[in-house]
Write a structure and sequence with these properties.
Helices cover 33% and strands 23% of the residues. By secondary structure, the chain is of the alpha/beta class. Bound molecules: flavin-adenine dinucleotide (FAD). Flavin-adenine dinucleotide is lined by residues 16-22, 39-42, 47-49, 63-66, 68, 213-214, 241-243, 246, 252, 274, 276, 363, 365, 370-371, 374-375, 403-404, 412-415, 417.
Length: 431
Amino acid sequence: MSVPDRLASPRSILVLGAGMAGLGAARALKDAGASVKVIEARNRIGGRTHTSHLWPDLPVDMGASWIHGTKGNPVTALARAQGLKITPTDYERSVTFDSCGQKVPFVKAAKSALKLVEKARKRVYKADADLSLQVAIEASPEWQQLSEDARRVARLAINTRIEHEYSGDWSRLSAWNFDQGVDFPGDEAVVTPGFGPILAHLAQGLDLRLGEAVRSITPRPEGVEVRTAQGIHFADHAIVTLPLGVLQSGDIRFAEPLSRKRQRAIEGLGMGLLNKCVLRFDRVFWPEDMDWIDFLGPVQTLWADWTSYLPATGHPLIVGFNAARMAEEIEELDDRDTVASAVAALRAMFGTSVPDPSGAQISRWRQDPFALGAYSFKAVGSSRKDRKALFGADWDGRLFFAGEATSADQPATVHGALITGRAAAAALITG
Ligand SMILES: Cc1cc2nc3c(=O)[nH]c(=O)nc-3n(C[C@H](O)[C@H](O)[C@H](O)COP(=O)(O)OP(=O)(O)OC[C@H]3O[C@@H](n4cnc5c(N)ncnc54)[C@H](O)[C@@H]3O)c2cc1C
């Protein structure tokens, strides 16, 4: 959205959180002449867009890495302006192996499984209440008629095409509403060397207070007071871009209740999980022309999805993903056991000659106290309305909410976060 370029009246604004939403808001407000301070708990900017520089020659994104739909997407414009390489990936360039290393014809099977999901959902649209996707699917005659083998393949499709995308377990995703949203057209594309330069660009010249975790927010007659371990900040308004997981945890004390519909939305939406295990090798042993490798192992949700970063980086780099319940389990393992489990999956697919990786980086977004999950999803009983209720003003306009979970149409994305941040800024500039 376009943000008006001047403030209606001089105003001071605290932006809580220096992820894409917070920095998008702060940039627009500063450019419009507001006095802006950004309060961020971590010692870095970016939040869930985090480009790791642990390997100086090979930066990797441990959070978001795709632009979902490059056409008309404001993140594409930012990526182009920073000269980032934008490499499309395509599910058509995918291959699936079983645990004996045999290819499984999965692309067509995945399409039929997703058709089965749609039929199962249609049957429950008229039910009195929303159900979980798992209950809706398992109750459907289409599922019940499948052979055991066909169910394993269908479960792999549900895991890789739904649970990985929405980050919620099928036992928690709303059968009615889990996929509500509006996609940008164009490619799915990864950016290299990562999202980092975009965040750094947005943050240029801002008053950033890093390493300050917000503890409480209190309305005052002339604005709002924010307390951190380091001190107290006052401003006319505060924009809260903290992740849904943090809002749900109760770690932040709101001195007065939030509106009932906002509180209901915080409680009703789900905070899901997606984790990455980024493995670096000395040579490529997987098919070089593929973007996606799916694994139909003995447990269909374990290391089910892999992306080759060879096309985007030119390095033998591959990323294994786990989502939802399986990601929660794997997050409990230490680094050594996580890598051993991931490499075992690769050896099942590509043989015992698969070497040990020369490096590994692992995300654990649930254990991260400033995320408490990967991104939000529509849990049973929640809908787009909850996201609309979460976005916007509270406490007579002294408080404003933005961030991915508040995006009615583009939740769980980098562009959704940016769009809500800019929309919050626009509302304060014109308001
Ligand atoms: C593994 C993973 C993969 C993903 N893949 C993609 C993808 O490919 N494409 C895509 O579009 N999206 C993807 N996403 C989602 C995307 O990263 C998020 O939707 C987006 O980055 C959220 O931005 P935000 O500004 O709303 O929140 P955040 O980036 O989380 O920003 C909120 C900020 O608040 C800070 N904070 C938290 N608590 C406090 C506190 N008490 N006081 C002060 N500050 C605090 C946090 O540290 C953080 O910096 C992925 C996310 C994950 C985790």
